[in-house]
Amino acid sequence: MLSFKLAVQNLKKGFKSFAPFIVASVTMFVLLFITVAIGQSPSLEHMKGGAAVSQLMTFGMWILAIFAGIILVYSYRFLQLQRSREFGLYDILGLGKKKIALVSFFELVLSYIAIVIIGTIAGIAFSKFFFLIFINMIGENQFDLAITAGAVFTVALIFLIFFSILLVIGTFIIWKSSSLDLLREESKGEKEPKSNIFMAIIGLLLLIVGYSLAVSVDNPIKALTTFFIAVLVVILGTYFFYISFTVWYLKWRKKRNSYYKPQNFITISSMLYRMKANAVGLANITILLSMSLVTLVVTIGIFVGSTQAVERAYPKEGRYVLYSQEKTTAQMVQTLKEKADQAGVEISNVSTALSADFLMVDGQKAATDTLRISPLTTQKTALRFSMTTLQTLKNLNEKVADISGKQINVLDYFGAYPNLKKLNWFGTQYEVKTIMATSDLKKYPIMLNMTTPMLIIFPNDEALYQALAAYNQANSERENSYQITPSLTVNFELQEQEQDKLRKAFEEDEGTLTFRSTELKEVQTGIGAFVFIGLVLGISFILGAALIIYYKQLSEGTQDKRAFKILQEVGLSKKQVAKTIKSQVSMIFLLPIAMTVLHFSFAYIMISKLIQIFGIMDNQLILWVSLGSIAALVVIYWLIYKGTSRVYYNIVEKK
Description:
Blueprint: H1 2-13, H2 15-39, H3 50-92, H4 97-137, H5 149-176, H6 179-188, H7 197-215, H8 220-254, H9 262-313, E1 318-323, H10 329-343, E2 348-367, E3 370-375, E4 382-389, H11 390-395, E5 407-412, E6 422-425, E7 428-436, E8 453-458, H12 461-475, E9 487-493, H13 499-505, E10 512-515, H14 516-569, H15 574-612, H16 619-652
Parallel strand pairs: 3-6, 4-8, 5-7
Antiparallel strand pairs: 1-9, 1-10, 2-3, 2-4, 2-9, 5-8, 6-7
């Protein structure tokens, strides 16, 4: 069959043209295969929290599948653009559009088979490697990854759908284009974006609105609800910025007298041409880089900070908790020691803690320095409080100002009441001696609440019980109300190998016995799967940006080769022309990464609040993770630029 033979011949002789598309497809196939293989592996059945890991992997699979589809369409459209002249010649020679579409069909079939085979082999190898990374992240010892035929079938089916879509797109373009259109398609470039002052202003306003939403976030839950709106607004603003504002600015520069100076003439004209041709591509690169940076910062921040969150909740290896108003912490210590003697284990470094959490109230500012607390009536003024005692914090070696009588210290989680002096708690007036921030406490387990939260620190147990009784009494007549019971906690040290013995001794006890090492493993399993998906997505976004940069360098090289010759013909030396082109390429390279850092800088507050949802309150940790991620992304982006720019210079400088 002629069409099949032509397809085979095209793949052999035109491998250089097909290579970027094949590489992009295999890369996305492997990334998708890794996620599916781990998510569907029977190995997860033997792992604690394996069901949750499987669900997270499935979620990641769908996100990757959507992203892979976008990249494949972009790559295949570029391949068609490069081969449009070839298809035009086929049509002129009488092959006909039906047979040209058939050639394209066989090329896709052969490419699909090669991608599935290569991608499966590479996917199995990389899945084993990434699974080792994953289980080390979650602290497991299950090193065997069983890859099922179902995983291979799932990824192959997803890519079959993608290639069917590519066939429809390719056939439609061939069918609707004339021979002359196909011959000219390669040299047309991207359409010039329409730009004017009105559209440029809209772009800037969208960015300002998105940035304002990001910096105005004052608590994690608001950050979660605001995040998606801000992201959509900034994405739209980014596109408007590139296709309207940059082009309008360059056109405005072109109208000024300074434009006719030699250095400005070449720079502005070249930049204007590049922005016209590449605005959408540059916007895509900026968005992908921003997505990868946010993903990496959030996932790495959560992973690094998860240990800190567990250590806050478990200042010592063991924790014995009881919710009761009848018992005291002293009685609980006695019970713990009796159980330890019964189990034949040794405990040490015992300390106690008293707290009450999830107190929902109405909070009204009676004056600039006074907060009046009353029973909850509406969610608009709702506050959620926690309580503890001065001795509890001192047992954890926290540095807190001494208080007595009707004095209290207040930990204001999000700085909502910086000037608070008095707290009217259901009719009882308390003097606020010190306003504290989360950074002031290093070991106390910070309770993250869903509304503007505060932690009240009372001078002793009796003061806490009185305040809690006032709360329960005030809320007793309210519909759907419930009584808050104080939490009594005993923290202690214990050898890990003796945990099971003590746990058996507590089997019939009404309290709850847990251990830091066990909790840490459970957290690492859940967080590890989340972080793993985040890292895979981050890598995917970076690779997507790299592919777009590569295609841009390839297409610009062909177009700039003509400009290179024209500039020399009008009198510029080869050295001057080369310097000019290098300058323009560098400027185009710097713009996306500069916009990415700008986006992230304004989103930093919102991102830090999102990370706080996972109980990670160390702002310094989040800052260092952010700076490290930015530095890593800049280095990776520079390496991508250096690698892809060789393609550009090889085309431009080729005689």
